[in-house]
Amino acid sequence: MGSEAPHHQLHAFLFPLMAQGHMIPMVDIARLLAARGLKSTIITTPLNASTLSKTTDRDRLSGLDIDIQIIPFPAVEVGLPEGTESLDKITSPEMIPKLFKAINMLQPQFEQLLEEKHPDFIVADMFLPWATESGGKFGIPRFVFHGMNFFSQCVTESLTVYKPYEGITSDKESFVVPGLPDKIEMTMSKLPEHFKVTTVFTELMEQVRDSELKSYGILVNSFYELEPAYAEHYKIVMGRKAWHIGPVSLRNRDTIDKAQRGKKGSIDEHYVLNWLDSKKPNSVIYISFGSVSRFSNDQLLEIATGLEDSGVSFVWVVRTIQNNEEEKFLPEDFEERMEGKGLIIRDWAPQVLILDHPAVGGFMTHCGWNSILEGLSAGVPMITWPLFAEQFYNEKLVIQVLKIGIRIGVEEWNKWMYGKSVTPVKKEKIREVVTQLMGDGEEAEEMRNRAKELSEMAKRAVEEGGSSYANLTALIEELKIYKK
Ligand code: UDP
What we know:
Number of helices: 18
Bound molecules: uridine-5'-diphosphate
CATH topology of the largest domain: Rossmann fold
Distance between the termini: 20 Å
CATH superfamily of the largest domain: Glycogen Phosphorylase B
Shape: globular
Number of domains: 2
CATH architecture of the largest domain: 3-Layer(aba) Sandwich
Strand content: 5-15%
Radius of gyration: 22 Å
CATH class of the largest domain: Alpha Beta
């Protein structure tokens, strides 16, 4: 209980968006703060709490002051099926505005908790813009967590402020995103929908920016050495008060912590580890498109065939549109032929555990920021296949700035699910990029070396004395002074 905590102990309220890509890093942040002696309370809904509690229970047993405060979620009230408490449960685009409506309805309950527990500060997801106002009512500073890197936030701000896409008539015509440290080019087809038409996100993104400007500061899951020019741009040119404290996934050091991040895996982690143990170093490609995207059966078939044709061993996480176990999307006898060569995991894999295994030498990713950061922390080069959100900006960071990846070549921003209207990436292209990334060509070798260097830098950043470690210390010290 906040009110019962010793007066010198800072108490943090952490309120993540109910989406794996937002909850997972926020829980890591809660654990990092608790490991520094703070009290961390995670605010979430009943089903999400039951998944997260395994991690927090383990942490509590090891002596950390961390708990979960549950608030009910009005799924049924907004017309969603009971139990739809997170974005990964969404199976059609029409459900998205309903989920956000339900999330907005949480404000009064959140404020009641603030009144009762009176924490010293709030870290709330960007998609809860009202949390700044809520904190303000009780004199509690609010920090924003976007789950994005500096680079993508700089791109977003430039697009929002300068609107360089105005006057561009063709979807494929490139334009420069102005004012950034590098010459970053974009096309209309790669921009999120809300820049082009009015959607539920158009107004929301304005509220997000407004609340960000009014909040105490921003926590960024990145490290200074990864994108120094953009960290400076963010703070100096954009004037945001930000702390880089990542990669937060490196908080998970042992097998159980890595295996239990997010949802319960659909495969036993020891089985995966044994399977990988039987493979040569850097010989396996890991393929995953994050926690919410779902591909059409046509696209899955192309991936399966492309992988088989590449001859490269793989671990592939598959999420179908229906997510139905019985659904048939593989070529005839594929699993028999791939026995020992490829491992297919339905729905949810222990991603960090897999990426960290020495047998894994490449990562085909949808460019979600957590995935990229986890991949580079593991020292693995990537094939970039962005789908939605800010993933096309992240692709630019990976390809152009960090130079640790090869593009699959997609040009069009999608909704959450891979729509029927989108032409699938063909098996020939998949085979080509997989063999290129996993082969012994000079370019691939250079990418592997750079990825390894970044991995070392990431690990140093979170160790005592490292840039992220020091930035977290600075944040805590500032909050102690604020509290006095
Ligand atoms: N993840 C996982 N297993 C899966 C799929 C995803 O552990 O099968 C985790 C992954 O490690 C990452 C998060 O879910 O931490 C996904 O976040 P990301 O930003 O990459 O993508 P999003 O899901 O938000 O699109």
